Amino acid sequence: MAPKRPRSAGAFPKPVEPTATVPAEKGELYAALDLGTNSCRMLIARPKGDQFQVVDSFSKAVQLGQGLEASGRLSRSSMARTVQALQICRRKIESHGVKRMRLVATEACRRAGNARDFIRYVRRETGLPLEIIPPEEEARLAVISCASLVSPRTEQVLVVDIGGGSTELVWIDISKVPPADRARAIMRMSGAGGFRALEGPEPSARVVDWISVPLGVATLKDQFADVEDDAARFALMSWYFEEKLADFTPYSSGSPQEGFQIIGTSGTVTTVAACHLGLKRYDRTRVDGLAMSSAQIDAVIRRFLQLGPEGRRADPRIGRDRHTLIMSGAAILQALMRVWPTDRMSVADRGLREGLLYAQMAADGVLEEMGPI
C-alpha cells in the first residue's frame, strides 16, 4: 500500500531564525533538536500559514564526538558538556510549554559503543526523549528541508549534508515531474515511504541513489591530525573523501550538462558562501538560497589555504567555533565540486532541524496547502 500523503505535503516552510526570542502567539509550538558529532542545535517554532515561524533557538558546539575516532566511545567530559547544553534546551522547552517535539542524535551516537548508556544518562539528567536516527532518515529530513530551493528547471538534484561525523548525499531524478511541481514532489518524501517512490496519480521524485559517508568535518580532521603541512593535509583529506564515493551510483557518470543542481547544507557551505559575499556579519537572508559556481567555491577555498591556520583563526568570517573544522569541510566540498562541477550549487542555511519540524507539522496537518509555485 502506498504511504498516505500528509495533508500539508504541499507546504513550504521558510523559517527565519530570530536574533532574540519571539513572543509566543496562540498555536501549538513544536521543537526539533539535532545532536551531532560537534554541535547541539534546537529550534522551537509554530505553524504559520504554509510556513513556520521560529520562536526560539539554541546552538552550541559541544564536541560530543571528541576522541571517538580513537576510542570508539563517547568520553565522560564530552557527555557532560552535552548534557549541560541539553539542560538549557530542556528549560527552553519547558518555558514555552512545548508538547510536540522530536529530539534526535546522529553519527556520533550511531558509532559510539556506549551510546545507549548516554541516551539513558540524558533521560535521567534532563528528562528529554533523545533518540538515535539511522542515516537514511537523517538524509531524508535534510532533503525535504531544502525542497523549496529546487529550481523548476532542475531535472537532477544532488542534496549534500556535511555534518560533523558523516556526510549524506542524495541524488534525485525529477525529470518526469512537471517543472512547476518539482519542489513539491521532493516535499512528499516527508511521508512514511521515505526514499521509496510514492505510488499514485501524481509524478514522483525518484531517488537514484543515496549514501552516508562516515566522514564529516570532525571525523575527517581527526583522520589526518598527524599531517603537519596545511596544504598537504587538505589535499589528502579531499582525495580520501572522494575515494569513499566509489560505491555511490552517480559517481562514475559525473554531472549532467543540463538541468542539474547541487544543494549544499552545512556550516561549511554557509561559511564559504558568507566569505564569498565578504560579509563582516553573518546574514542568513543573503546566504540562504545563494547560487555559487565551482570556480567561486574554489576561490574561497584558495583564500582559506593562503590564510593558514593562524589566519583562519583570526578571520571573523570563519568564526571561533569553526576555524579548526573549516578545512576538512572545504576538503569535502572541493571533492564534490571536482566530481560534479556546476554553476548552480544552491546554499541552504537549513537542514535536519527544519526537516524535523516540517515532518511533525505535516504529519499533524497544521500547515496550509501551498498553491502552484
Q: Which structural traits does this protein have?
A:
11 strands; Nucleotidyltransferase, domain 5; six-stranded mixed β-sheet; 373 residues; five-stranded mixed β-sheet; 19% strand; alpha/beta; 13 helices
Give an account of the 3D structure.
The protein is α/β, with parallel strands linked by helices and 373 residues long. The chain folds into two domains: 30-134, Nucleotidyltransferase, domain 5; 137-348, Exopolyphosphatase. Domain 2 (Nucleotidyltransferase, domain 5, 2-Layer Sandwich), CATH 3.30.420. Helix content is 38%, strand content 19%. It has helices spanning 68-71, 76-96, 107-111, 115-126, 135-145, 182-187, 217-223, 230-243, 267-277, 284-287, 294-314, 326-339, 352-364; strands at 30-35, 39-48, 51-61, 100-105, 130-132, 156-162, 167-173, 206-213, 260-265, 291-292, 345-348. It has a six-stranded mixed β-sheet, sandwiched between helices. The longest helix is centred in the N-terminal third of the chain and has 21 residues, at 76-96. The model is unreliable at 1-13 and 15-24 (pLDDT under 50). InterPro entries: ATPase_NBD, GppA/Ppx_hydrolase, Ppx_GppA_N. GO terms for molecular function: pyrophosphatase activity.
